[in-house]
Each structure stands twice: as C-alpha cells, then as structure tokens.
Specification:
- The chain is α+β, with helices and mostly antiparallel strands and 439 residues long.
- Helices cover 39% and strands 25% of the residues.
- It is built from nine helices and twelve strands.
- The strands form two sheets. Strands 1, 2, 3, 5, 6, 7 and 9 form a seven-stranded mixed beta sheet that branches.
- A hairpin with a 3-residue loop joins strand 6 and strand 7.
- Helix 3 packs antiparallel against helix 4 and helix 5 crosses helix 8.
- The longest helix has 46 residues.
- It is rod-shaped.
- It is found in: Cell membrane; Membrane.
- Its main location: membrane.
- Belongs to the ligand-gated ion channel (TC 1.A.9) family.
- GO terms for molecular function: chloride channel activity; extracellular ligand-gated monoatomic ion channel activity; ligand-gated monoatomic anion channel activity; transmembrane signaling receptor activity.
Amino acid sequence: MWQLLMPLLALVAPGGGSFSPNRELLECASQILYMDQYAYQLPTNYSRNIPPGKNTTVYIGINVNRVSGVDENREEITLDVFLQVSWEEIRLNVPPGRPFIDLPWEFRQLIWTPDLYIWQLQTMRILSVLQEMASLRLYANRTVSVSIGATITIKCEMDFVLYPLDVQNCAIDFSSYKYTTEDVRFEWREVAPWFGIAGEQRHEFRLPKYVVTFVTDKSNHIRNFGEGEHSAARLQIKLSRELRGYLLESYLPSSLFVIISWGSFCVIPEIVPGRMVLLVTTLLSLVTMFDTVSTNSPDALELKCIEVWLISCTLFVFLALLEYFVVLFGIRYDKSWSRRRQDLRRAASAAQLAPPLHMNHSQDSPILEAIPQSGSANGVWARICTSAEKGVMFCGAQHGALDRYALIVFPLCFILFTVIYWTTYLSEAHRAMHSTRYG
C-alpha cells in the first residue's frame, strides 16, 4: 500500500525533492486509496500544470437557488448558486466496474483544474453546514466534475434614468485568465448527463421590487486581454422592476392631486381663502412627494423617469395657481375700470352732456392713460395695450370666462402629456429590455 502512495506524495513534493509525509496528507491519501478494496493512484507522469489536451472544452452548469438581494446603491446582486464545472481528463481512469468515484475535496490540488475566472465577481463564499458544500467526482468516461454551493456577489453596472421603468441587463462571463482559446474553451451545459442537479431549473425569481431572469447565452464569446483571445461562457441577468407599487405609491396620488387642482376652477374667485388653500396645499403635497421620491430612489446622471412625472404634475398645479392670480388681477382691474367709468358718467351728467352708450376705452382706460399720446410708435403701443386691457377684463369678468376655458384646457393638456410620457418612456424601456450591458 505504501508503494502506491509514493507516486501520489511525489506530486506534491516541492521542487521535486524529498517529501516528508504529514498526518493530514496521509489521511487524505488513505481516503483516496481505500475505495471498496480498490487502490487508486495518479499516473507517474501526470502533471497538474498541463491541460488534458489542446482545445479542452470546459462545461459550465449553474443553478440559481435564490436571489438574496439587489443593492441598487452599490450596484450589486447577491445569489445562492450551485455551480458545476466539468471537463474530460483523459489521463485519469476509474477502477474497473465502477461508474464513478468520489474524491476528497482536497484532491483538486493534485490534478489539473481550469483557472475559472468570473469577470464581474465581487465576493464568493462556499456554503457550509457541517462541511463545505463541494464535491469532486471522476466518472468512468474520464470526466471530472466539480460541484460547489456558494453565495456570490456580482457587480452589475446599472442605469436608473428610466427609474422605475428601468430594465437592468448584466452579462456575467465565465472564462480563463491564463489559457487562450487554443487551449481551453468554455461552453454551457444546463444539466450535466452525469447525475446533475435534480428537479426543474428556475430561470425567474420574483422579488418585492424586481423580477430577476437568468438566461444562458449559447453563442461563442471572446474576451481579449493579456496574450490573446480567451473563450467565455456568458450568463445574462435581467432585472425588470415591479411597477405596480410605484403606480400606487407615486403615479396615482400625484395624478389625483392634479385632478383635484382643477376643482379650483369651479370655486368662485372671490372666495380667496378656499381656493388658495386648495391650490397651495396640493402644490406643497407634490413638492413633498418629489423630495421623498428623490431621496429614496437610486442616483442617476440625469432626471429620472418618475422625477419628470412629478415635476410635470407640480407645474400643472402651479399653472392652476398662476391662473388664479391672473383672475384676481383681472377682477381688481375690472372693478377699478368700472368705478372710473361711473365717475366719468357722473361728470358728464353734471355738464348736461348726453352720456354715450359705449365708452371709448382710450378716454378712460388706466392702461392707456399711462402712455403719452404722441408719435406713431405710441399708436402701436396703444393698440397693444388695448388688446392687453381686453384680455385682462376678460380674465376678470364676473361670469368666470377664464375659469371655464381653463377647466377644458387643463385636462386636455394633462391627458396629452400623459399619452406622450408613457409612450416615450415605455418605448425606451422596451428598447433597454432587449439591449445588453457588459460589466
């Protein structure tokens, strides 16, 4: 038995010199050799630094067990996965009559294993209960399979301009950092034919805010760095946000605030406190909502989709308040003009002059009186001021003409804005859903 151990121990001897076996390695070796009365040893000419052959194919299989969380501020995704890596090792044999043998996890240091590199990997921790969830198995068809259960954190570059209609696409590449495509190729294998993970594999996970979808890209991908081209197996992760919560928490209340502001057009303009309280309260509510959403939402380089909506709703309420200021100014001007006209009529009656049925605005207009009556340019200004005066008097008319028109124009403009808004941003979200972002 000791003669069988010597070639194995020689593999781990530093510099090819003499090796003094320690207790841990002896225990490891004894586990390898004692397998139902079968003695197993590595070939004497085996080298762990040389791949099994040229253009070795390494198969990657991944089963996502759970999406632990999505950190938008740090742009990270945490996953619990079962990862399976397999390749053909023609230099190793299984004892006759056995379909496979399970090797100790420490034995991976004695054989060639691919230098798997996950490009967007931040951290990786092998799951452990009583022992690490990792296995190393050699099959009769000379296939080596490494399976591990791990919690991994992936870096994913995110763009929140379309928030909350944003769709994040992350491409995760599994490749080699040392071997080029001439030595090692990486390909996907959903479920390995040698007793892979049982059960139907999940490709979609629903979180409180996101729907996370995983798709393995079967096309060939190349990473260029170092000394040449490196093969890569790509996993696409797509995060589409659940929109229902945002509709109920932000879009619906802000829309109702805008609709409530239209009720001010039905309030008699002379009731200043009631109308002002309605508009100012609605305006302040929208400003507070905008501040809350901006604080709790992820940062973006531009205005986010929901911020554009809230700013637009705030402007609609502000314009309703501005319309009321115009109405108040018109009422005040109309009253001033009426008193001046009455004074002129009383003066005309005192002078026993027949009062005209229709007064000429140029004779008693407060606006025109402020303009010097000389020169042709003043005539142009007089016509402009006459038109302005008619507009102000129209706004201040006691029958509320401007409010009636505003009650029609404001809803139509808001409906038009809503159609343009959702059409534009939904098309952008659809375009982003079918695009790919590389980490």
